[in-house]
Design goal:
alpha+beta; 49% helix; 131 residues; Alpha-Beta Plaits
């Protein structure tokens, strides 16, 4: 991706209430369940990353735990594709996933926090300034 030639958007994704699920398994000493959940997180994040690259030609900046950060050329960005990623994460892990999208990493971070505060499983893309 030619990052100099195109307007870029940051898409920051984060799993919802993942810590609560991990704590449940820990407090109930369900190590097998925790291990299975952990594997599902790894698989889901890898799938989201691969699909973002394949469908939007995204650059993966970070993909680990329950977090992803993609750089996407504005002309390749499609909210519908991120909605598909939310569904994939949910079906793989049983947990919701939220995305914040913005022209800056700060806006993307604020937007993912807003998505989570609205109950999670959402995409917030406010403050995207079109040039």
């Amino acid at each position: 991706m030619d990052v100099q030639a195109k307007q870029l958007l940051y898409a920051l994704g984060d799993g919802d209430k993942i810590r609560d699920r991990v704590e449940y398994y820990l407090f109930n000493e369900e190590l097998e369940g925790l291990s299975k959940f952990s594997r599902s997180l790894v698989e889901a994040v890898n799938t989201l990353s691969s699909m973002a690259v394949a469908t939007m030609n995204a650059k993966v900046v970070m993909a680990g735990g329950d977090d992803v950060l993609f750089l996407i050329a504005e002309d390749r960005y499609k909210k519908e594709l991120l909605l598909e990623l939310l569904e994939i994460f949910k079906s793989s892990t049983g947990s919701n996933f939220s995305f914040g999208v913005g022209n800056t990493i700060t806006n993307a971070y604020l937007n993912v926090r807003k998505a989570k505060s609205l109950g999670g499983g959402k995409i917030v893309e406010q403050e995207i300034i079109r040039e």
